[in-house]
Amino acid sequence: MRLFSDAASSRAVRFRVLGLLGVFLVAASLAGCASDKDDIIAPDEPAEKIYNEGLTLMNKGDLTAAAKRFEDLDRTHPYSEWARKALLMDTYVYYQAGKYDEAIAAGKRYLTLHPGSADAAYANYLVASAYFDNIPDVTRDQKATRQALDALDDVIRKYPNTEYAASAKKKVEVARDQLAGKEMMIGRYYLENRNYTGAINRFKVVVTQYQTTRQVEEALFRLTEAYMALGIIGEAQTAAAVLGYNFPESSWYKDAYKLVQQGGGEPQENKGSWISQAFKKLGLG
Asked: Contacts for 59-66 with beta carbons within 8 Å, 24 or more apart?
């Protein structure tokens, strides 16, 4: 009985030591992982402290580190008022850093979580501005420009009497001019390659959809040019006449006038022309 008792006791001790050793190894492993990650947030770190650290980093110009702290706050205190503020600041910091995709993502998340907050208008405006500032060169695809227009129109529609709407309206004109410029670029290409029908279709888009942009003067002249090349004199005369009526001091009108005269005619508006009708819709013709 003594031997059996001693053997059993020995096994029990051995198992307990092995168990304690296993616990120690797991704890040591976790401690090693923690030491390898200096950015782990203490669970009891106050939300206000993290937020203020983010603001301090932002004011110092360290926007990447600031965004990280605001994200830390959103992660560790997800349902707090501080987290709401941090998400808005995250949108702003990413926008200031020129990281427009990240700004858009953060702003849209803010609007999903807090659509009725007092800062929703500002979040909307930041998202729209991020799209706007990411507008590509006119030679490239203009998908981002259309996205910017949609986002800017959203700000104007939702918050019409705010400073954000006023600023958005100015950006809208720039974005529309960009889209008109793209149409003009393609139209000129078609015109140079004597694809007059293709060119007219592009210039028509400018005249009907973007006639408040600076591109419309040239579009009317190019329509005069394309219609003269096709021998459709009446439409060429109308394009020149509408150009002269709305932009009498334009150098494009002087060129259009000469072009029509060379064909033996004068600028003369046909009231039934689509060009005349397009301008009458806005009271410009």
From this structure: 63/93, 63/94, 63/96, 63/97, 64/97, 66/93
- The domain in which residue 264 lies consists of 180-285
- Looking at the domain assignment, is residue 101 inside a domain? no
One-letter amino acid of 252: W
Q: Rounded to whole angstroms, how far apart are CA atoms 100 and 112?
A: 18
Residue 237 counted as domain residue: yes
- CATH number for position 200: 1.25.40.10
**190 within domain boundaries:** yes
| Residue matched to tokens 């360290």 | 62
The number of beta carbons lying within 10 Å of the beta carbon of residue 23 is: 10
CB distance 70 to 58 below 8 Å: no
Tokens of 255: 């060129």
- The pLDDT tens digits for 8-60 are 333 333 333 333 333 333 333 433 444 444 455 455 789 999 999 999 999 99
What pLDDT is recorded for position 45?
87
User: Rounded to whole angstroms, how far apart are CA atoms 104 and 158?
Assistant: 18
- Rounded Cα distance between 134 and 136, Å, is 6
Q: How far is CA 263 from CA 67, 194, 201, 235, in A?
A: 65, 18, 23, 13
